[in-house]
Amino acid sequence: MAEIYPGFIGVAIINNSIGDYPPARCTEFSVNVKQEPLFYDHIIGLRDTIPTSIYDIKGDEDDYGEGPSNLQKILWRPGVKICQGGFSFPWTDDNLGLLWKEAITGASFDMNFQYACDLAREFTGCKVNSFNFKVASGDIVSSTLDIMAIHEDMADYSKETIDTPAKILTWDSVSITSDVIDSVDIVNFDFTINNNCMPIYTAGNNVGNSDTGSGDPLEAKEIRVGMQQLTGSISFYNLDSLAYLDDISSPTSINVNVGGFSFELTVVFKPMEQSASVGPVIRVLPFVGVDHNIAI
Predict the structure, then answer these.
(1) Which of 178, 295, 290 is nearest to 229 (CA)?
(2) At a CB cut-off of 8 Å and minimum separation 6, what does 88 contact?
(3) Whole-angstrom distance, CA of residue 14 vs CA of residue 99
(4) How far apart are CA 26 and CA 12, in angstroms?
C-alpha cells in the first residue's frame, strides 16, 4: 500500500537564517523558472493554407479528403530565463514585517523554500516585484508577494525542519488611523506596493550574473527596480460621520499598526466609490501613494 503525503506547501526562509529572520509558513508558493520557446510563424506566406501544388505543405483537400501537412513553427529559439512567481503567507507573532523593508527599498535578499516533501530550493539575489497587504473584519492578516530572481542563482539544497508553533494575527490586532477616516467602521483594508522590477539582459561577453560577470546570455545580468507605485482602498460601513468625497483631497497619512509593527503610508484619497445594493451599504475609498509613499 502506497503512503500518501501532504502536498507541496512549505516554509520560506529569508536570508538563510531561521533564528535571525522569521520564516513564512506559506499558504501558496509558485516561484519557478520562466522560459518560453519563441517561434517564427508562417514562413511561406501570410495564410494558414496555401495551394497544394507546392510540395509537402498544408493546403486544400485532395480527392481523398486529405491535404499534405504543413510543418508549422519549424524555426524557433529559446527565450530568456528568469525566476518569478508569487507566494502568500499569514502574518504571525514571529514574522511581523517579513520582507517589508525589502519591498519598500528594493533591497535584494536570499530565500530558501522548504516544500512539504523532500525538496528544498534556494533563490539568491531576489527582489520584491509587488507586495500586497490585506485584512478584513473577522479575518486574518495576510500578504501576497511577487518575486523575481536570477535563474543562474537557483539551486536545490537539503531541507531543515521547522516545527515551532506561532499565533496567526487577526483583525483585532490591527489599528488603522487617518484624519480622513476618523471614527468610521472599517471592514476591509488592502494595498499593493508595485516596484515594477525589470530583468536586464546584455549581449556579447558581458553576460550572466552581475556577481560572476559570466554565464549564459539568456540569463538576466541583474534585476532593476523601476518606479514604485502604491495603490489601495479602505472599505467601511455607510455612516453619516464621514462626508462623501467627490474630488482628490490634499495628501494625508494612513498609520497602521499590526501586532506592534507600525508603518505609515503617504497618500491622496480618490473620489469615493459607492453602489446601491440589498444588504449593508459599503463605501470604498481608494487611494494612491504620493511622494515617497512609505515612511522608512
Answers:
(1) 290
(2) 26, 27, 28, 29, 142, 143, 144, 145
(3) 8
(4) 7
What is the pairing mode between strands 32-34 and 82-90?
antiparallel
User: If we measure between CA atoms, which residue out of 226, 239, 232 comes closest to residue 263?
Assistant: 232
Scanning the structure block, which residue is given the C-alpha cell 519557478?
32
Question: Which of these, 116, 84, 99, lies nearest to 15 by C-alpha position?
Answer: 99
- Cell reading at 184: 468610521
Measured between alpha carbons, how far apart are the two ends of the chain, in Å? 56
Domain ranges (residues) in the chain = 11-36+79-294, 37-78
Q: What is the pLDDT of residue 206?
A: 57
Q: What is the pLDDT of residues 23-63, one digit of tens each?
A: 788 889 889 888 998 887 655 554 545 455 555 545 555 55
Asked whether the CA dihedral 175, 176, 181, 182 is positive or negative, the reply is positive
Greater confidence (40 vs 136) lies with: 136
